[in-house]
Each structure stands twice: as C-alpha cells, then as structure tokens.
C-alpha cells in the first residue's frame, strides 16, 4: 500500500504556518497591516512590508489585491490594477526617508540655497519659506547660503527674487534677503518707543494695501536687529494690549516675518501641526522634514515645548501617530537629540 505524503500545518496563536514553520498570510490582521504599511502620508512601514511580503505566495497576493479595492482597481482586462495616483504617492512616500537623510547630511549653506530656489520654483510660490530662511537664520548663516546660491546658480539671491516677484511681495522679500542684520544686544529705548508708535499708527489706522505700501513699516521689519524687534514686540503689546503679529493677521507675509524674527518656536510649531494634519498639501507635508532637519541643532527644545503648550500633545507622540517606518524613527530620533541639547 502506497504511503500518502502528508503536509503538516502548525498552528500558533491563530497564525497558520507551512511545513517549514513560516507564516502564511491568511489573517485579516496581516492584510490590514499590509494595507496600513502602503497607506502612509508620511513614509511607509518598511518592516511590516518585509515581514509579510516575503512570506506571500501568488494566491496570498491575489487575495490582498481583491480585499484592497481602494488600492487596486478592477480592470476591464480582468485583473486588479494599482490605482495610478496611489502608486505615484507611494513612490513619493518611499523616498521621504531618503530625502530626509540627504537633507540632514547636506552642508547647511547648500541646503538653504536649494530651499531658496524651491521657494519660488513651486506653484504657487512659497513666500513663507523664503521669509523663514531670511528671518530665522543668523546673518552669517544666511550669508553662507547667499554665497552657495551664487555658486550653484550663477546669480544672486536678490536678482533671483527680484525677477520672480512683483509689487509688495518684491519690496518685502528683496529687502529681507538683502539685509545683513546686526546680531548684537545694543538698543536705543527712545528709538524703540518712537518706532513702536509708527508701527501702531500704521497698523491701527491704515487699510491693508496702505500698510503694504508704508515704507516705515518695511524699513523697521527688514533692517532692525532681532533683539531690537523683540523689544518692539514687547513694547507694542504693552502699548496696544495686542500682539503685533495678531494685528497683522490679514497680511500673512508681514505676520510670518514678525513671527520668524520675534518668535520662531511659534512659527515652526504651526508649520509642524499643519504638516501633520488630516489632509496636508504636498508642500505642507514636506515642511515636516524641513523643520525637524534644520532646527534639530538650533532650537528644537523650544519648538517642542511650544508645540506641547499650544496643541496639548508632545511633539514626539504626534510624529509617531502621523509618520511611519524608518522616516518616523529618523524624525523622532532627531527631535530627541534636539530636546537633549
């Protein structure tokens, strides 16, 4: 009598195993884990993909495709086809960790020079990014980026901005990228009170388009030192019982300028929470990498504290909830490093 060869299936904690003891992807949990690994908006879960996909046979993958209709579309040729939009999005998410590593290892001058170019190459242009670069770096840091920009693109930052931008935006941005601010602590109290009054009169009495044209407002914001402007900010609060940036709320570029010069943690906290919101734009999502990478060794501790104070959740926990895989781990590690400094 011929002995029938038997295939043994081991059962362990509800998971089916083949004769070699390897997992077979049959559980709903594994299908869901794989779908989650594919569906990130900030990175992908590489570990889950590796653990599950290497064990899958063709039948398993067919089952996964059929049970994931929002990832795979029923095609008229009778096979499940990747949704083209999601496939492109997934390619971007796979690259997110790679781009973060590259940005982290770049020389800060080169990184900022590339960001200057990106700010006006985007459609629509990212004026807030250019303001961020001009106002949150020290004078020497931005001078380095200015030199790197010339080396990379054979033109000055001022020339690049002046050609790409018009009107009020040109006047403000060219002035910001052209200024080598005094970094010291010396100030004149009498001058501060006088210029605080000038700002107050312009903001409280003039219309939006008149404020944008006010040469004194632009002169003060684009030439005075950061310490000087922080003192004006305090003086304005005491004089008018409101914050300077709040009274400039209708003019976003001026508001961003004030926040970047006087309160960078407030500005960066808002950028981060927007990046990790439910439906961020492509540019908003990219800002998560930019802020974490560029501020780790500068003021990450202050940003994390402001984020927790304003939004009621630790920054690290929000990143863990929003991001996936190596990208998440990389950002969390950088934030921890910055908070320890």
Roughly how many Å is the radius of gyration?
26 Å
The total of helices stands at 20
Overall pLDDT level: 90
Structural class: mainly alpha
User: Which percent range describes the beta-strand content?
Assistant: under 5%
**Strand arrangement across the biggest beta sheet:** 1-2
Tell me the number of strands: 4
- How many strands, which pairing sense, and closed or not: the largest β-sheet? 2 strands, antiparallel
Describe the structure.
- The chain is mainly α and 341 residues long.
- The protein has 20 helices and four strands.
- The chain has helices at 28-38, 46-53, 58-66, 84-105, 108-121, 127-136, 139-153, 157-164, 167-178, 189-205, 208-213, 215-223, 226-240, 244-247, 252-262, 264-275, 282-295, 300-311, 315-322, 325-340; strands spanning 10-12, 15-17, 72-74, 80-82.
- A two-stranded antiparallel sheet has the order 1-2.
- Helix 6 (127-136) packs parallel to helix 9 (167-178) and helix 18 crosses helix 20 (325-340).
- It is elongated, with a radius of gyration of 26 Å.
- It starts with 9 loop residues before the first strand and ends with a helix.
- 31% of the residues are buried.
């Amino acid at each position: 009598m011929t002995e029938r060869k038997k295939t043994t299936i081991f059962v362990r904690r509800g998971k089916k195993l083949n004769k070699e003891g390897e997992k077979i992807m049959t559980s709903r949990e594994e299908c869901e884990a794989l779908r989650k690994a594919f569906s990130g908006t900030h990175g992908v879960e590489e570990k889950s993909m590796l653990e599950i996909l290497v064990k899958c046979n063709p039948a398993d993958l067919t089952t996964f495709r059929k049970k994931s209709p929002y990832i795979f579309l029923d095609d008229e040729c009778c096979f499940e086809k990747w949704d083209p939009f999601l496939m492109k999005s997934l390619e971007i998410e796979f690259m997110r960790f790679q781009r973060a590593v590259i940005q982290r290892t770049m020389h800060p001058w080169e990184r900022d020079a590339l960001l200057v170019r990106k700010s006006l190459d985007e459609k629509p242009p990212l004026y807030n990014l250019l303001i961020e670069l001009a106002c949150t770096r020290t004078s020497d840091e931005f001078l380095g980026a200015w030199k790197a920009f010339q080396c990379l693109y054979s033109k000055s930052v001022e020339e690049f901005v002046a050609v790409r931008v018009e009107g009020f935006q040109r006047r403000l941005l060219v002035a910001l990228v052209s200024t080598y601010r005094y970094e010291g602590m010396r100030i004149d109290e009498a001058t501060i009170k006088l210029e605080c009054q000038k700002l107050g009169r312009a903001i409280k009495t003039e219309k939006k388009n008149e404020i944008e044209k006010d040469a004194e407002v632009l002169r003060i914001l684009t030439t005075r030192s950061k310490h000087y402007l922080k003192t004006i900010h305090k003086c304005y609060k005491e004089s008018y019982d409101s914050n300077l940036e709040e009274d400039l709320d209708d003019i976003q570029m001026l508001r961003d300028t004030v926040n970047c010069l006087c309160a960078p943690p407030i500005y960066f906290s808002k950028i981060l929470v927007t990046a990790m919101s439910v439906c961020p734009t492509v540019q908003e999502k990219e800002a998560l990498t930019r802020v974490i990478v560029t501020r780790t060794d500068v003021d990450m501790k202050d940003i994390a504290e402001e984020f927790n104070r304003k939004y009621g959740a630790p920054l690290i926990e929000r990143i863990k909830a929003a991001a996936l895989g190596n990208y998440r781990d990389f950002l969390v590690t950088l934030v921890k490093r910055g908070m320890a400094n």
